[in-house]
Amino acid sequence: MTTYAALLRGINVGGKKKVPMAELREVLEGLGYEDVRTYLQSGNAVFGGGDADPAALAAQIERAIEERFGFPVACLVVDGARLRAVQEGCPYPADELEGKQLHATFLSEQPDDGRFTGIDREAFLPEEFTVGERVVYLYAPEGLGRSKLAEALFRPAVFKGIDATTRNWNTVVKLVEMTR
Question: What pTM was estimated for this model as a whole?
Fold first, then answer.
């Protein structure tokens, strides 16, 4: 059985789109997934589900959440192997950084390089980003909340048509552990 992580975007932030983790576990169990566990209140769930297409799983989870809670929630599903590949492919010294300094933005599809040409990388130093395989790594020494590069990267035009959700490095590491 393959273990997956469901990464929900934009829930439990500022009192909007409240999805209690106990209820999220119920939704996933109701879909027939096994060994369902959640991590933090920001929409991270790990579950076993056979060998299914992650995009199909995400669509199924999105429908079930909207039915249960009455609002849409974007969801990306990644398997444990992809999470490990993201961790292993990190171009920054993750072991030397605080979790708040390093982030991974998971993408539903690979963006073409042209999406990033309007971002003057030099203007944002020491902040940096690197595009990997369906992931963007962001090094923000002062954290995401203070990052000017994050503002530029996450403009709607950059990821238009691509589902994207960001996790700090501590969460990435924990999800890798949970999906082993």
Answer: 0.93
